[in-house]
């Protein structure tokens, strides 16, 4: 008879307790892992799904160090964490996904753009500005996009500058001024990297924007792009993660221009909104995949079971307060639709409150249902 040694249970921590942490914990329940979360807000979406919750500041050295020193591994759900503490923990033998070195490059847009340039990864031309006075001398570089080096997210920290008058809207802090790309499409790919350096890439995702409101309408996967463009995207994403030299999950966002040139917009070294459909749509989801990477298991299968769309559920304009999901019952009757409510008690305009995944072999059906959901489901504030 063959006896197997009991599996050792790894202790793995997540810095940040939002929806990404929550979905990561949902996937963790399948594996022998003891989960830890650190976050300021004890009522955050991930707080009740982990084995151990620590109230703490993920940007504070001592909090991150003390949280991590007894763990086997740590991952992040947001880039804005104390990377010095992660560097010390790494030196002490704790595995960090992504490595602090990769995280440091990505979390600062100046270093990120320099990394693309040094590694010959196509990305739009840029200049560095330290303050508004420097920006004011760069009128010749317009039209361009000014981006804060640190701390921007979801479009905050990005200003489009077309004319001389727009220069005043720029940031008075270290930033990059990036040449404006005339965008035909925005595409994202998620790629997993194991500790042994193996890669697995998910089918590309089309991020479809409402041109008028400049808001993400929905995401579709696989993306409708010519094979040649997809090849470019796949080659660039592979080179990018190879040169970052870190295990983990990476989301690479691209712009495709009218001549089908491809530019990297930015990279996230973590699970990402553009991969949420992989929970139902693909054999191994991005969340399942990250546990496979961290637990040293074989990488999962990234293939799609069915094409998918995602609609983000954002807090409606004009409503702040206790969240209420208008139209939910109607949407839940649709058979190819999957609801994810993140458990945030308070809604406010634009806040990510959940997402809906739609699966179908028919692209028209995906688009039709996405629009139906957008027109039916609203997150408003409850008024008794
Ligand atoms: P964030 O990380 O805050 O979402 P991004 O860098 O992705 O910021 O920029 C937000 C949006 O601004 C992009 O999705 C794109 O529509 C637009 N944008 C950013 N950079 C450029 C660029 N160089 N040219 C044209 N549009 C851009």
Keyword list:
31% strand, five-stranded parallel β-sheet, 26% helix, binds adenosine-5'-diphosphate, Rossmann fold, 11 helices, alpha+beta, D-amino Acid Aminotransferase, Chain A, domain 1
Shape: globular
Rg, please?
A: 21 Å
End-to-end Cα distance: 65 Å
For the record, the count of structural domains works out to 3
How is the main sheet built?
Answer: 9 strands, antiparallel
* Mean of residue pLDDT values: 95
- Derived structural class: alpha+beta
CATH topology tier name of the largest domain: D-amino Acid Aminotransferase, Chain A, domain 1
CATH class of the largest domain: Alpha Beta
CATH architectural name of the largest domain? 2-Layer Sandwich
Chemical compounds bound to the protein: adenosine-5'-diphosphate
CATH superfamily of the largest domain: ATP-grasp fold, B domain
Task: Please work out how many helical segments DSSP would assign.
Answer: 11
Strand content: 25-35%
Q: Say how many strands there are.
A: 21
| Contiguous uncertain segments of 5+ residues | none
